[in-house]
Amino acid sequence: MLLCKTAVSPSSVLHYSLNILDFSFVIFDHNRRDYLFRLSLDGLALLEESRWPAADEVVRLCQDKGQSEDDCHNYIRVLHVHGERILACGTNAFSPRCSWRPVEAIDVVSEWSSGVARCPYSPHSHISSLLSSGPTGSADLYIGSPTDFSGQDNAIYRLPLPSSASSSAGSSATPQHIIKGRLRTMQYNAMWLNVPDFVGSVEADNFVYFFFREAAVEFSNCGKAVYSRVARVCKNDLGGGQLMLKDTWTTFLKARLNCSLPAEYPFYYDHIQSVTFLEEERLFYATFTTSENSIAGSAVCSFTLDSMQETFAGPFRSQSSPTSTWESVHSTHAHSHCSSHHPAHSSSSSSLLEAEKYQLMDRAVQPIFRPGKSGNGPLIRLDLERFSHIAVDVVATKIHSFVHVLYVASRDGLVRKYSVLPRTQEACLVEIIDPLALSSQLADRQIKTMQFLKQQNALYIGTENEVIRLGASQRCKRFTTKTQCLNSMDPYCGWQSALEECTPPPNKNPLVSYWQQSITSCPILNAPVDGGWGDWNDWSQCAHTGEGAQGDRCSCRQRHCNRPAPAHGGQRCLGHSHEVANCTRHGGWTEWSAWSACSQTCGLAVKTRRRSCGNPEPAFGGRLCVGPDRDEIYCPSNPPCPVKSVPPIDGQWSDWGDWSECTASCGGGFRSRLRRCDNPPPQHGGTDCSGCGIEYQTCNAHSCSEAKKVTTWTPWLLANDTDLGRIERRFRFSCKAPVDTNLLKVGTLKLEERICHTDGTCLRTDSGNTEGGWSEWSEWTECSRQCGGGRQQRTRTCDGPGYLRSSDCDGPTLMERACNLQPCKGVWSCWTEWSVCSVTCGQGTRSRSRTCSVEGGDDSSSRNELDIEGCVGPSEMKEYCNNPSCEQGWDAWSSWSLCDADGMQVRRRRCMIGDLDHAPAPGLCQGRSQEERVCISNLEGNYDM
Fold it and tell me: ω before 160 within 30° of 0 (cis)?
């Protein structure tokens, strides 16, 4: 079958709600990531997507109430189209919410509303809903679902849509559409609904039918059992009065669905899983299984709408008291009948009492009787399998106006295609399809949803990670002969004699004369089948073996004789099943060519020969030839060449170079310049250049300014010591000349005296040199910073007689200036080591960093202190780190315990890795082994509906 698919997420998906809205596109929700998607029907191309997550505060509140992180997302469970708009309702982290969106712009929300009673709180609830449109354009939402936080209040609701959501017809609306209100089943009454799991809902005539499985209340006196049910309500039910059955159905009825193996003690398939309805045939097909704790078994049963009506028109089953037996009761009340002209409403108290008392029908709905079968047995029965979904197509064939084709999905991910022969009502297995065979996501093969669209003649399947489209008639091309085609008994296929091919009906007309088909029995499987080659697989590397092989590689591909495989004496496939090409070929040398002529006719000369790596050329990874491709030898027989006379070449000077710097800045110095005898140099006995290669010149002959230089003062030295005191002296030398300061030598001695008294005071004398004043400025100190702005200083002293102070000289003793104002260049440091992963299990992150420092600056300088040109690139780098799954190594959670005295429930799980004496391997069994929550029974939900 033709398989198209689209992957909606690389991560796992919990649920899908797949709705085919028209003949051009399909809308579904990808619950795991809070998304709505719109895809094309033909190629499943993504047309539009809309993200609809729950708000952060709603998620936090959900988790505070004890729900798991995975459940606190927005799981979209209700999705319907009405006119040009879509109604989408989601769990919204256990705070249901609904939205209206345009059909072709699902990311645009035109209206928000509460989702209570329109959508379950939990994503794990089994629900079913439909949108019923009235004759005036109004619409009602029918839904079977839990309606409270704890999931204990199950109900079948009818909710008229707001006037803004349903297109109004104005004054033309009939009174019944104006006064119809919201209705539900009686709250917390097990006689109406007893912990139901809804699987489907259908609108037919004036009724709406709900299919579900529930705990059988009529079996409670004998133990516990689960029965499959069908419930029915009138669409025009107006509910009870003010005192009785207010806002409650008055036409609610339910009956058991019988799908069993008939015998004296029948074997029942009591767990309904899926249902589909053929409106024109007024026929239901449903899949049933045994209970989960029983041996696996599945069945498909069919029911007519008339058989359901007959059951609902029969007697009721009632129990007068909790300890009495259940009895069949005939009631004269006709609350089970509804008409489009007379709304189902009874005002008398007796009628309302009977409507409140009687809901369960006495007789079960029986499946279709099939001649040749023992009793009303299942249409299809399979042991050790569990069916999940069913879809049905009605196909016109050559000899039948219609044949029902059933697509039945099982939990192992396979889809079985059956055809139901109209004359015998026998179900024939046509083929078994594995739609997930080519899927890249094989962790969970469970099919989540399945629908057949007649206009596209295709089956649409939703799985954990993708949507798959299977063309119904693409199987025909597998049959290469007329016998194979006709024996397949596939309702979609026939033999077209004009093309000699197995094809679907030409132009969808099975009655043309040149198209042959005979669907009269189940597929003929014992006819000889000649083998046919399948497609070649992709080329791959293989080893080259055999004589002379050196472990080289070749390209190989393979095909199998399996399309079809030979069977029942059919011929085997002709030809080879393997192909080998592009084997590694190592290069080989060709023969040497003839020697060439000598490179010259006299003197030293060589001759050469060549070869090429082309015998064979290296190919497909082969080695090149080893060795040279050129060979040469001297020519020994050449005569000496005559000596040529070469004229001498005299040397010539090059141009003078640039003058060097002057040797003195003043007082007269000299500079020099050079030239070389290389333009050209003397050759073959030529003369050398005449003259000098260096030239000197005086420079800077102007007089130097007078310079002065002084030494520092010596320490004070004792000159004379008396009883009245002592005389101390100190010395320094000074010199000055109109020369460079570096040439100054210490000259004249200067003397300074002071008299120190016995009381410790000292007084300078006037002796010594009285010449004084500022000394020369010192050299500038080294800049405090190499970049980004630093400071330089220079100082001078007040020189002269001993009694002079620095304050006696005019001007400052210290001078500063800015230096190295250019910005510092930022340089990245090395990356730090990667940090530890942020989580110990699952996917987390780790990081590393680097700092922007100064190139050539102080190591202590930071980027904020200096003017640094920015470093290019990020200062921090992050990457994902994958640890083992947080759930790896754990067994499944146990069931929640009974409530303890503190109103808490506990569940536990066991680490499957390790034992009591050995800890589990690192990375396994992460997280808690025990969880607690507030008892569900203590949570109360009371919503004003």
Answer: no
The answer on 910 and 862 residing in a single domain is no
pLDDT, residue 712, reads 83
CB atoms within 10 A of CB 191: 17
Residues 849 and 900 in one domain: no
How far from 873 is each of 67, 767, 877, 890, CA to CA, in Å? 43, 72, 10, 44
Q: CA-CA distances (angstroms) from residue 191 to 214, 218, 344, 422? A: 11, 9, 21, 40
| Token output for 39 | 């895809």
Q: Is 633 left (phi over 0), alpha (psi -120 to 50) or beta?
A: beta
- Judged by phi (left if over 0) then psi (alpha if -120 to 50, else beta), residue 146 lies in beta
The pair of three-digit structure tokens given for residue 554, joined into one six-digit string = 């070749």
Distance CA 515, CA 501 (A): 10
Residues 759 and 712 in one domain: yes
Kind of pairing between the strands at 824-828 and 868-869: parallel
What average pLDDT does range 151-156 have in this prediction?
Answer: 94
Q: Same domain, yes or no, for 905 and 875?
A: no
Containing domain of residue 909, as a range? 894-945
In total, how many domains does the chain have? 3
Average pLDDT, the chain: 82
418 vs 798, residue with greater confidence: 418
For 752, the token pair is: 């300074």
The tokens for 249 are: 């159905």
Q: What secondary structure does DSSP assign to 87-130, as a single string?
A: EEEE-TTTS-EEEEEETT-TT---EEEE-BTTB-SSTT---EEE
Q: Answer yes or no: is 5 within a domain.
A: no
Q: Over the stretch 58-109, which tens digit does the pLDDT of each residue have?
A: 999 999 999 999 999 999 999 999 888 999 999 999 999 999 999 989 999 9
pLDDT, position 778: 87
Residue 572 lies in a domain: no
Q: What is the pTM of this model?
A: 0.59
Task: State residue 334's pLDDT score.
Answer: 58
